[in-house]
Amino acid sequence: MELDIKDLCVRFPTPSGDIPAVNHVTLSFSEREVTGIIGETGSGKSVLGLSILGLLPSNAQVQGQILWGERELTALSEKELCKIRGREIALVAQNPATSLNPSIRVGRQIEEVFRLAGESRTESRQHTLELLLQMAFSEPERVAKSYPFELSGGMRQRILTAIAVAAHPRWLLADEPTKGLDAVVRNQVYDTFCMVRKQHQIGFIVITHDLLLARKFCDRIVVMYCGRVLEVNSAQKLFTHPKHPYTQGLIASLPHLGMKPMEGFSPAFTEQPSGCVFHPRCPYAEEICRTREPKSTSLGEGSVCCHRHT
Known about the structure:
Low-confidence stretches: none
Number of helices: 12
Largest sheet: 8 strands, mixed
Helix content: 25-40%
Strand content: 15-25%
Oligomer: single chain
Order of helices and strands: EEEHEEHEHHHHHEHEHEEHHHEE
Shape: globular
Structural class: alpha/beta
């Protein structure tokens, strides 16, 4: 089942004016495909992801459509959304140190998913141990009896992933799954996601700053900046032939490519520049970039929002 976002806008009212966290975004996510959403802090990635599950703060003003099959998610009640969260679209939240309950053993936290599905205590415990084995825990009994603080960062991330897949959802939405983790644990997260994708045949939306994870794991990449989608393409083409100057700057900042930082900073959401939002930092900016906002232009299987490609 595909997930379609049509002209989505998310704004947060503040005393300084409305913050346009997501600005006229239109995207389609294909079944069993892995889509990465990348961009700097404040680009709107996490707000877009939380919009799908209806997990935004109560003051968020949402316009546009999020279609899950024939259902319009933005029009559903909280009760109806609860039937979709976890069961059809599951969230792997960022920061396992705070997402797991520190006072409850991890096995019980996984069992709760099976219990909510109507299983008995015995069945839920058995399925929890089986799931821990699938998640590459060699001692599932010991791990199930552990508290989160007794496990490493990589193990806690696998527990969060186990909780997410326990109800056999059709999609996983992973929000910054490698944030704050060292290189070894980041590789463990990548291995875990590859294993989950192979075993459960589900689609992923991966919101991340980790460009190396995005390149290795994702089929397709969405590049966001100031709440807008600037470029979409296959991971291979985007990383080898990026079209938008912002994408080029992101990739050039990778350590193995020389770690060349982009000039300037992202503008405040309450002080968005006219024309192309990236033009104050763009090395190719022309007069049209300062006065007219570019439209999305199709380029093969991808698209780019830049006057240089219109």
